[in-house]
Amino acid sequence: MGNKQSIFTAQQLDAYQVVKCFCRLSRLFYRYRDLAPQLVPLDYTKQPDVKLPYELIGSMPELKDNPFRQRIAEVFSEDGEGNMSLDDFLDMFSVLSEMAPRDLKAYYAFKIYDFNNDDFICKSDLEKTLNKLTRSELTEDEVKMVCEKVMDEADLDNDGRLSLEDFQHMIVRAPDFLSTFHIRI
Amino acid sequence: MTSYSSRGFFNAAYHDSETLEMDRRSGTKPPHTNPYAREEPVRWGGRLGGRDEAAWGATDGGLQDESRRGRDHITTGAGAPPFPHQPYHNRFQADNRYNQRPQARLPSLVSDNMTMRLRGIAMRRMSMFPHASPADVDLTENAIREEMENDEQNLMKELVSMSTLEQTRAIRELTMSFEAKKRIRNKVLAFRSVKKSHEFTWFAELSENTSLFFRRCGYTMRSARQALELWHGIMKEIGGKFGSSVLTYFMFLKWLLLFNIFSFVVNFSFITVPLLVYDPNITSSVSFRGLELLTGAGYFTHTVMYYGAYSNETLKHGVEYNLQLAYFFTIAVYMVLCGIALIFSMASSFKKNFVLVDPASTSAWQLLCSWDFSVTSEKTVTQRKNNLRVQLKESLSEKAQQELLTVPEKLKHFGIHFCSWLVSTALVVGCAASIFFLCQYEGKLFSQWGPGAASLQQEAETLLVPFMVSLMNLVIPLFFSLFNKLEHYSNNRSQIYTLVVRNVFLRMSILGVLCYYWMNEVSLRSPSQCWESMVGQALYRLVIVDFFFQMLGSFFGEFLRNVIGTKLHRRLGPPEFDVARNVLDLIYAQTLAWIGIYFSPLLPSIQILKFFILFYLKKVSLTQNCQPPRRTGRAAQMQTIFIFLLFFPFFVGAISIVGYTSWSLNPSQNCGPFRGLNQAFSVVEIWIEGLHILPGSGWAVWIYKNIIRSEIFYFLITLIILGVTYVFYQLIQGRKELIGLLKQRIINEGKDKSFLLDKIQNLQSSRPKKDTRQSKDGRSSHQPSLGGHSDAVRQALLARQQAEQEEATYSDGVSVPADISTSSALMQAMLARQRAERETEDLYQRVEDPPSSFTALSLAMEARQRAEGEMLQDNSREGDFYENPTTASSAVSQAIQARLRAEEEASASSAMMQVMKARQQAEQEAGMQWTDVQLQNPAVSSSSAVAQAMQARLRAEEELPASSVMMQVMQARQQAEQEAGMEWAHVQPQNPAAAGSSALIQAMLARQQAQNEYDDGY
Question: What residue stretches are annotated with the EF-hand domain (chain A) (predicted)?
Fold first, then answer.
């Protein structure tokens, strides 16, 4: 605690702890700071406006090899371009932590898969996901077939795209999601 | 909503000044003076009028009122005038300021700061207008914003009415950014502090402070626990390299390790420590030879390791400590606690992982849910990508394959299944039987030993049974997996489950046979010897040998397999980590420990060591030898199944064996805590009888007699549990039905939605089309083509016809107002003609085809003449025309103007053009003046004006470089017109209107003549 108190005020700590889903705060802070020690001050009581560029965030070992790293950074950063403040950073790892509730995870996973930000996972989003997950090695026909199958299985209201409700419905039936949508810090 | 995230509320100064404690303080202090009491009735009416008095008693109602008031405040806060001299309201205004801010961005862009429900609404709205234009969005935006605000208010209401714990959880679950959550929380806290401020404040403050204190403590504890978390780094590494399915094994191992640590601590502190304190000189007479570490016999036989060494005495060091009771209750409580922990983790795991599992959606699952975000190694990522690709391809081709199955093939599959089940069952039975006979053989060997210390060889012989058991446990599963490869399974999961079931069957039967042997043969055979210690030793040997075999297993199964796979048969590749087999090994080992806890209370210590070493061993073996699993099975489900297996056959089996031993078997007469008793359980009986003497312990005796010893109680309990289970089963069935119905409904609503969307789209697309068609029509009428001239002319004619018809109706004596329509009809006619003439002119100019242009021109002229004639006739015929001179004259003037224009356009040749222009000017002036004069002061100036006009025209016409013929014509016309003008001038003073008309007629006629002449001349 001694360390933390010099980084954050007690009120900040309290707010973080109530609002966050877990409290590995100091560890996360130092991870954040290690990305750019010269940029991030050790004293956060004054709420400095520091943002780390996506290049630094994406080079974290936890994200480096993740095919969705750019999407993750975009979704959680406030400017939508992957540049993250400490709050964004904490947001990201609290959603990706073990203790985050299912709905929260599902919501952000949905956003990550929604490449064109239109609040629906449409076929183009699925194709992008598929290409990211298979290194673009499937033929076009196969990609199309897989996407159609996915739509067939998950699209309950038959509007040709997956809404958040469809996605959540699918997540509920796929319990592994909770353990796989999880980055250990 | 976007405005929430940015400035104002969250700037540093605000944040630093208005933090939680301060909120609370500012909220709780004012009510000491309570300046708002008199305002309340005004503001909230009678509903809250008496709440100051009622606040103490009716907490429920008070709370409701509070929350309702909170709501009121939210809803009215934005618009209502601010309360004077109320410090906390200023803060509300600060909050509400955000509600009032105009929302500039489109709802679809407003993403981060909305709650899930808000988002849902926005999405629904947007999905109603999938191809909406920005205008439509503007229309709906207000509605969306309103609804979002409402929703946020509802959310606030809910949050305010929750307890602190629930509230925290609810806030955490909101899908908003950290900033937004913080804002919501501060708002809620502000409301709460207001609420609290009306109750007795010192108590509220105290409770808030204590809750804050406890919360802080909780956080500190939790962070400390997380910092101390065992093997966190290793877990992360394994998860990063091998994914979460392999990690399941290590989590399971850790979990079991914690169980054992707990049991060791309990047993050691409640059973062993008192004994050691009481009698520290328990040492074995036999010297230590080293082999004891494997066999557990010899030196260890008479140590605290086993049942036999424990005393049945009651320690008296100030407090009485009954070792018998301690032994019995410690083990009983430990077993019960284990059971409860297992049931709870099993139930929660079931709830999480098995409630709605739908095996049908494999592709969607593979694509969207199966990616393991915890994987961090590049190699694994590429491998996973490859695996996923292969799996997707397989799943695409699977459908085609399934349909090809014929009846003989199915029969063949069935036959293979049947055979493999038969063979594996036979194997299991054979193993069980051989172990039983082996045990009997070993028993005979033991009975031949003398009572003294056994020789080394004899001691080593005791290892035969555990060796065989462990060997079977190692080898038979290999056969099972061989069968599994031969069999054909429709999906991966049933294959794994079959394998698991067979393995469980094997281990259960082996353990069952061993237990049967211990219970029925060992316990009866040697009442003089300490049979519990012998069983304990046997279990110890099993645990130790199993440990060695697990090491061997990972050596052969993983290391050698890796060497073979990478060096000899490269096609095989490095092995995969078999999670199912390894977890079953762990379950088996843990079952041994559970059974052994009665016979050897310190067996958990061995188990702890074993698991600890095993963890590192497996970790090293995994990282050195294995590759990540090719099939990313549903790890969470497998984990649930493992926990279930651990509970159901194994833990239940262990607890029933321990129970049977203590309830029904005779304990050894010469050793152990229960020596001299018929059953271990009698210790409780004796204790209860002893309690009779103590006053005030009647209830314990009553409980013992009426509950624990009564069959009726258990009978009733069983009945009740069965009934409850049945009710829950029915509930589950009902829910399943409901889920099916709801699913159907979702599908139906989706159909409805798409249907309605189609309709809307149709409507939207049909309306603009109409518009364009109209505009196209308009354009086409303005864009003449060569072929369209006749059309133009025809239109002109049609228009004229219309005008004529209208005029005809007018002339039939329809009343006055019709003249407006007449003039408009005239106008139309003129315009139409004009258009026609313009077109003909264009044609003439472009094509330079005199005859056709002539005909067109002549047509136009004709039309004009006719129109003029009609107009004139109209003028002359209609008596009541002059009753309304203004409109008539204006109509006439309009008509003339139109004609002029038409003429201007129609004149093709330059001369004619000029002539026409000049005439037009003159006529225009004349007409204008005429109308002017008629309107204002008809009598005086009109004649002069007309004369002037005529003169001007004359002049103009004179100036024209016309041909002689033209000149003559013009002159003639001029004369005629002059005459007309004169006449008109004469007549006017008397009856301006009538004269005007006749003059006009004459003038027109003259002009017509002149034109005729001109035409001729031309």
Answer: 101-136, 142-177
Mutate to test the interface with B, among A18, A98, A139 (most CBs of B within 10 A): A18
Count of Cβ atoms closer than 10 Å to residue B868 Cβ: 17
What is the nearest CA distance from A37 to chain B, expressed in angstroms? 22
Asked if B2 contacts B64 with a C-beta cutoff of 8 angstroms, the reply is no
- Of B937, B816, B936, B932, the C-alpha closest to B881 is B816
* Helix spans in B308-463 (H): 323-354, 362-364, 378-403, 407-448, 456-461
Interior/surface letters B657-692, b for 16+ CB within 10 angstroms, e for the rest: bbeebbeebebbeebbbbbebebbbbbbeebbeebe
How would residue B84 be classed by pLDDT, with cut points 50, 70 and 90?
very low
- Are residues B431 and B509 in contact, defined by beta-carbon separation less than 8 angstroms? yes
CA distance linking residue B259 with residue B267, whole number of Å: 12
Instruction: Give the phi and the psi of residue B428 in degrees, each rounded to 5.
Output: -60, -45
Residue B571 carries which DSSP code? T
Q: Is B464 helix (H, G, I), strand (E, B) or coil?
A: helix
> What is the predicted pLDDT for the residue at B437?
94
**Across the interface, do B123 and A119 touch by the CB < 8 Å criterion?**
yes
More confident residue, B233 or B137: B233
What is the dihedral angle through the alpha carbons of A93, A96, A99, A103, rounded to the nearest 10 degrees?
130
Whether the pLDDT of residue B1000 is over 50: the answer is: yes
Which pLDDT band, with edges at 50, 70 and 90, does B825 fall under?
Answer: very low
Q: How far apart are CA A166 and CA A155, in angstroms?
A: 6
Residues 6+ apart with CB under 8 A from B467: B545
DSSP B338-364: HHHHHHHHHHHHHHHHHSS--TT-HHH
What's the pLDDT score for residue B613? 94
- The count of other CB atoms within 10 Å of the CB of residue B794 is 14
Mutate to test the interface with B, among A49, A114, A130, A149 (most CBs of B within 10 A): A149
Alpha-carbon distance A94 to B172, whole Å? Answer: 10
Cβ–Cβ gap A158/B751 under 8 Å: yes
Nearest-angstrom CA–CA distance, B572 and B557: 13
Q: Which of B854, B812, B802 is nearest to B833 (CA)?
A: B802
pLDDT for residue B896: 55
pTM of the model: 0.65
Show the tokens assigned to B974: 């001029």
The pLDDT mean for chain B works out to 69
What is the DSSP secondary structure assignment for residue B704, as one 8-state letter? I
DSSP one-letter code for B490: S
**Domains (ranges, CATH) in chain A?**
11-96 (1.10.238.10), 102-181 (1.10.238.10)
Return all residues near B607 (Cβ < 8 A) that are at least 6 apart.
B260, B264, B543, B589, B590, B593
CB B249 within 8 A of CB B618: yes
Using an 8 Å CB-CB cutoff, list chain A residues near B750.
155-159
The reply to whether residue B172 touches residue A184, judged by beta carbons under 8 angstroms, is: no
CA distance B643 to B767: 64
- Here the ipTM equals 0.86
In this structure, what token pair is assigned to residue A133?
Answer: 């997950």
Dihedral of the alpha carbons of A13, A15, A19, A23, in degrees to the nearest 10: 10
Q: What is the pLDDT of residues B769-787, one digit of tens each?
A: 555 444 444 444 444 444 4
Please state the rounded mean pLDDT for residues B831-859.
50
The C-alpha atoms of residue B568 and residue B590 are separated, in whole angstroms, by 37
Whether pLDDT at B140 is above 90? no
Does residue A166 contact residue B368 with C-beta atoms inside 8 Å? no
Return the domain boundaries, chain B: 147-195, 200-229, 230-446+456-669
Tell me, rounded to whole angstroms, the distance of Cα A141 from its chain centroid. Answer: 30
